[in-house]
Amino acid sequence: MNNLQACIFDMDGVLVSTEKYHFLAWKELAESLGFTIDEVFNEQLKGVSRAVCIDLILQHGGIDVSADEKQHLSDKKNTKYLKYISTISRNDVLPGVVSLLEELRKHGIKTAVGSASKNAPFLLEKLELTTFFDVLVDGTQISQPKPHPEVFLKGAEKMAVQPQNCIVFEDAQSGVQAAKSAGMYCVGIGNPAILSEADMCVNGVYEISYLDLAIL
Ligand code: B16
Ligand code: MG
User: What H or E segment, with its residue span, contains residue 214?
Assistant: First the structure.
């Protein structure tokens, strides 16, 4: 990339470690239905919408339910999830996030959140991160879930920058695929074996500074 103008951050798993709570809430729901899910299966749930998650889980358990029941089950999962995140505060923002956001702003780089979560505005408020971003695209604003690039393309459009001038930070396989389909540079956060399509991989945002990004 030759002209960095904007950074787009996934939320769950990049700004805050909420993936474990999504997993616990889905696991409890699966167990109430008589089966379980493990961390390996959970990789498929990362980055994808609640509606896709419930379909994948019911398929995994070999369970077929009506559309109404499906809605009820996914609402139940969200209630459990909201309980888990009820005590989250600014102390839960992952290391390096605030300092990188401050550095980016200082250098005139625009910032966005690109998340599949419908809880994103609520969570960003709790984390006291809302004002650090120029743009927010969340699960209520998109019609096609990751790995479709819609969430990131919409973020770039709202910031009025071209996709090739954006860097995406992502922890999910589906999110990395979405960023690459959008034509953006992608920094994977997590296991390089899982995020093999990312342009580079780090353990967390704390490993990245503005200068690292400016020379890409
Ligand atoms: P909600 P991200 C995603 O957020 C999560 O990775 C995924 O596990 C979750 O199912 C999805 O949001 C929907 O979340 O149920 O809160 O609307 O990683 O794209 O920020
Ligand atoms: Mg994520």
Answer: helix 210-214
> What residues are labeled active site?
10, 12
CA of 48 relative to ligand 1 center, distance in Å: 6
Instruction: Grade residue 23 by pLDDT with cuts at 50, 70 and 90.
Output: very high
Residue 15 CA: nearest ligand 1 atom is: 20
Contact (CB, 8 A) for 185 and 1: yes
Give the residue whose CA is nearest to atom 16 of ligand 1.
Answer: 117
Could you report the per-residue pLDDT of 112-126, keeping only the tens digit for each?
A: 999 999 999 999 999
Measure the N-to-C terminal CA separation of the chain; round to a whole number of Å. Answer: 6
Q: Which of 29, 58, 85 is the last residue of a domain?
A: 85
Q: Tell me how far the alpha carbon of residue 196 lies from the centroid of ligand 1, in angstroms.
A: 21
* φ, ψ (nearest 5 deg) of residue 136: -125, 125
Range of the domain at 162: 6-16+89-214
Number of the ligand closest to the Cα of 29: 1
Which ligand 1 atom minimizes the distance to the CA of 139?
A: 17
Q: Which tokens is 161 given? A: 């920058």
Report how far ligand 1's centroid is from the alpha carbon of 115 (Å). Answer: 7
For position 1, what pLDDT does the model report? 73
pLDDT at position 64: 94
Q: What's the pLDDT score for residue 5?
A: 97
Domain count across the chain: 2
